[in-house]
């Protein structure tokens, strides 16, 4: 019924598959973080220096890849990165301005809020405390464990879907090219002529990519938390870099070819290692973050002490914003 061409896993075909899936990952990469900021209405967990350095690196990457005449996937990725960076930075500035206005308004009303809390009935505290002591500790651990499993399942389904859509996109293009007048996909040989300006731009972008992660890693370390940044954001970045490296290396291991593409390989490989560092921070600070972002117990504390403790927990994290880096 369907006359579908067979797939021969030659080097150009594998490169195209890896490159197309890489593009799919990079198309999606900014969406989880944009949604995270929209959902929390906060930019506290994200470093502005990280975004600005990433944007400048993408601009140099785009210029260098166009001048050097690299693979079309490289040029398309660089152009999309630049546009997406601008959107994320614009969103960051809008929500940061809202936070500053809300913070200024909160300081003006802080004294009245404290006076209102002092009028809370004293008899509620012992009752609430007694109920909380009877709450089984095991049930909260089970809820947290179930929540972690659901997050893992949710992330796995999203990643699998993006990879699947990337492969389908490549296969549709593969079918069209096979049914063209040449009867098979056309693979253009890589450009092995080194352009000095392109190489300069490529190495500048590599340095900027490596430097961009340092403010975010430092911010996470100072806050002892990854609340406010999306795990999928860095997961797709890692997948995109790995597949991008594979799409370049599988084409050829010729020394001249590697020399021409070395700056882009260096930037992707170095960024991948830095993103893995942020992944480690996610797992190290995961238990602490569950205390802040995890499900609330059935009986919410109403005592003045509990309110201040909860507020202090959030203030401790939110107070360490990107101004420290």
Automatic annotation (TrEMBL):
<comment type="similarity">
    <text>Belongs to the laat-1 family.</text>
</comment>
<dbReference type="InterPro" id="IPR051415">
    <property type="entry name" value="LAAT-1"/>
</dbReference>
<feature type="transmembrane region" description="Helical">
    <location>
        <begin position="262"/>
        <end position="285"/>
    </location>
</feature>
<feature type="transmembrane region" description="Helical">
    <location>
        <begin position="46"/>
        <end position="64"/>
    </location>
</feature>
<feature type="transmembrane region" description="Helical">
    <location>
        <begin position="152"/>
        <end position="172"/>
    </location>
</feature>
<feature type="transmembrane region" description="Helical">
    <location>
        <begin position="192"/>
        <end position="210"/>
    </location>
</feature>
<dbReference type="GO" id="GO:0098852">
    <property type="term" value="C:lytic vacuole membrane"/>
</dbReference>
<keyword id="KW-0812">Transmembrane</keyword>
<feature type="transmembrane region" description="Helical">
    <location>
        <begin position="12"/>
        <end position="34"/>
    </location>
</feature>
<feature type="transmembrane region" description="Helical">
    <location>
        <begin position="231"/>
        <end position="250"/>
    </location>
</feature>
<dbReference type="GO" id="GO:0034486">
    <property type="term" value="P:vacuolar transmembrane transport"/>
</dbReference>
<feature type="transmembrane region" description="Helical">
    <location>
        <begin position="70"/>
        <end position="90"/>
    </location>
</feature>
<keyword id="KW-1133">Transmembrane helix</keyword>
<protein>
    <submittedName>
        <fullName>Uncharacterized protein</fullName>
    </submittedName>
</protein>
<dbReference type="GO" id="GO:0015174">
    <property type="term" value="F:basic amino acid transmembrane transporter activity"/>
</dbReference>
<dbReference type="Pfam" id="PF04193">
    <property type="entry name" value="PQ-loop"/>
</dbReference>
<feature type="region of interest" description="Disordered">
    <location>
        <begin position="295"/>
        <end position="325"/>
    </location>
</feature>
<dbReference type="InterPro" id="IPR006603">
    <property type="entry name" value="PQ-loop_rpt"/>
</dbReference>
<keyword id="KW-0472">Membrane</keyword>
